[in-house]
UniProtKB/TrEMBL annotation:
Ranges of residues in domain Bacterial alpha-L-rhamnosidase N-terminal: 177-348
PANTHER family linked: ALPHA-RHAMNOSIDASE (EUROFUNG), ALPHA-RHAMNOSIDASE (EUROFUNG)-RELATED
A Pfam family recorded for this sequence: Bac_rhamnosid
UniProt name for this protein: alpha-L-rhamnosidase
E.C. number(s) listed in UniProt: 3.2.1.40
Catalytic activity: Hydrolysis of terminal non-reducing alpha-L-rhamnose residues in alpha-L-rhamnosides
Alpha-L-rhamnosidase C-terminal domain sequence ranges: 811-879
Biological process terms in GO annotation: carbohydrate metabolic process
An example Gene Ontology molecular-function term: alpha-L-rhamnosidase activity
SUPFAM superfamilies reported in the protein's UniProt record: Six-hairpin glycosidases
Amino acid sequence: MKKFFLHLTFIIITLISVSAKAQNKINVTELQCEMLNNPEGIDVVQPRLSWQIKADVNDVKQTAYQIIVASTLENLNANKADLWDSGKITSDQSSNVTYKGKKLEDRKDAFWKVIVWTNKGEIQSANSAHFSMGILNYANWKSTRWIGYEKASIGDSITQYSRLSARYFRKEINLKKQIKSAKVYIMGMGLYELYINGNKIGDQVLAPVPTDYTKNVKYNVFDVTSQLKEGKNMLGTILGNGRFFTMRQDFKPYKIKTFGYPKMALQLFVEYTDGSKEVIRTDDTWKVTTNGPILSNNEYDGEEYDARKEMKNWNTTNFDDKKWFLAEYVQEPGGFYEAQMTPNMKIMGEVKPISIKQTSRGTYILDMGQNMVGWLQLKVKGKSGDQIKLKFAESLQADGSLYIENLRDARTTDVYTLKGEGEETWEPTFVFHGFRFVEVTGFTTKPTIDNFVGKVVYDDIKTTGTFESSNPIMNQIFKNAYWGIRGNYKGMPIDCPQRNERQPWLGDRTTGAYGESFLFDNQTLYAKWLDDIKNAQTADGGIPDVAPAFWRYYGDNVTWPGTYITVADMLYQQFGDKKVVEKHYPSMKKWIVYMEQNYLVKDLMTKDKYGDWCVPPESLELIHSKDSARTTNGELIASAFYYHLLQKMKKFATIDGNNTDDIKYYDSLSERIKTAFNAKFFNAAKNNYGNNTVTANLLPLAFGMVPENLQSKVFDNIVHEVEVTYKGHISTGVIGTQFLMRTLSEYGRPDLSYKLASNDTYPSWGYMAKNGATTIWELWNGNTADPKMNSQNHVMLLGDLLIWYYENMAGIKSNPETPGFKQIIMKPDFETGLTYVNASYESIYGTINSDWKKDKKALQWKITIPANTTALVYLPTNSITNVSLNSNKIDKSSSNYKVENNTIVLTLSSGSYNISVKR
């Protein structure tokens, strides 16, 4: 059963307390459930618990902990650990501690706290954290029936341009006793909104997160005790289409997976104060109508809303539903029911327009000033029947009208029909748009920017990273990346938010997920995505290019499906999550073997599908380069990348229990591939690989395939191509760019990395910014290329740029030997061209800060290291006499530093430090 898997559950605890034994105070904040966002209804039988220690003194180390878990808050407050008392455990572990108490039962609550011993004394959590178990067994859903309305209504269209009205459901219930507690468990496919007594439950939007519904279906849980009352109550839901009733329902069925009409299953569990319990379930006594105001909702085409059809009080007990139908029992989706462990989407911010201008056609163009993802809230006055149309796009044509060719056949239009009752405020419910500009039609008076507010929508996850430097171009690129990444978090990482695609392509995140993890707390998002990939795997081991497999793209290659492995590695490296590796290891190995058995010929991987996708073309009008000198051999890419993945699998085999047979298999296969690769692709006369593209040389160098005595010569060829052939510009596509910046820095040319990062001429990230981009383009020439493929909000071309920003410019990197930032490597490339960098990252242990400035005389560096961690701090001098720490000289006899390659390496414990280095 699914419940026995060790799912990712992560509760961050920060402690409020003052150590009675410590002379200095350890200041902390309140307890919070960080990764569980909504801690109601988890389906993990052994959750992993974590906490943070926040201190205003240096050198704080945990020496032991004790976790107390109780079934009630009263028991916890009385230190009655009726679920689990870990006892005092001598350990510095403060993350991913596995619960080992009594069996956690269906729908039961758990309250917990932690006592921590440090080298400064003992601290106790002043507050408690809470989580509750979900429905752990499929059988407990069996009495709950799926209901729906499996028909098209008047005005619906089951075609390429699908139209389907929203389904409204209601059920009046009578609760005859005083209520102690109540929780709702809901599966609303494809999207739902839930109401009780007229009030919307939760602040989530576009819920639940999308999956392949034939594989798994997510349920959400809400504590609704305060929403219910003794006596009559009304449950109401609205179902939208989402990914369930697919946007192109009757179009390319061989490619686009469809699931049917919207449907739902719901359970309301009520416990009364006398101890009795009651369960209300979806059944055929619920009422349904499709004759509501949401006439159509389609992710590609928009939402149509007729306010004249609003049903006042439809979701309260004061409503006549005689004209509504009885709901139908319908077939379940087919996937296993799972608690949703990832946060839903939410309105995460607002954008106010910067201008509105009238066109020659009498319409208006609204400029948000920022390419964003979400929707518009509209305020308007008019007569009943007046229609406002909002058409969304990312850019404008020369005449000031919308540029929509790059949207393909997505109509991206919301339509609002007024009811004519004073000022009306509306925003859509079941769609989102990627846009900066909006064409507004239908206003009978001149609109102003005050008639509109942009709502920014993405997964409810925390921003964890900040970055600022002395270079304005680099700062704008960072901002563009931030807006692009968050806009494409939609319960899964999608490629773009605007055209008729919006798919979770694996290849877009192979290394990108790693860079994103510095900006956003994306751990649960990507843990969920790994489940999507696993569920999409074929019985014989194949992995698609898109997962969930909403598009049936099972073409077999290395670089796209290999994301399954690289994202797992990211979760281990950045968050210390080895359980995700253990969980997915068998499926990852199955794919490795599948590719070897089907496509390895003479020890080389022969299958490649996309090459070095989106290399900068020689002409600004081209999508793809036609110059063979820019094109890297696909077999070279596939073989090198497969070798790279084998090294990660070898590491995983150790994590998964030191599987010696698997390690031998990976070693043997790697050695054979490396030998064959060098024999075929290395040109000894020129010391390069393949046709000498940057990517052809970069991949074997970055992956450790180049013999040590030849590495500098191969690197010289990379430098020559960058500096001479391409005149200091980027020439790599999606694959090469994943390793470009770090490899240039690693081999002694951080200045060249900096040049690529700070360029503002084609092709470069700065060129995008200079030409008005406020997100990252799909193409290096996204302002001039053929409109068939020039999304202006993609993230795939970021490659390893953000990793380089943090690890090489800011000097914030997790030591691979101590994953999850238990030890931090702080080693900025000071000699690049920047004069200052100020960056921060909220790790699982707390905030890491790196703020450095330099001039001709000195380097000043302020750093913060979280409690219960250490850092290796690299300083650009070989003399300890040039260094002062918190205004004090360092004793030459100190064991806290060493000299390594003409660099001072300090070992520092937690705390805040001011470092000065004379130059």
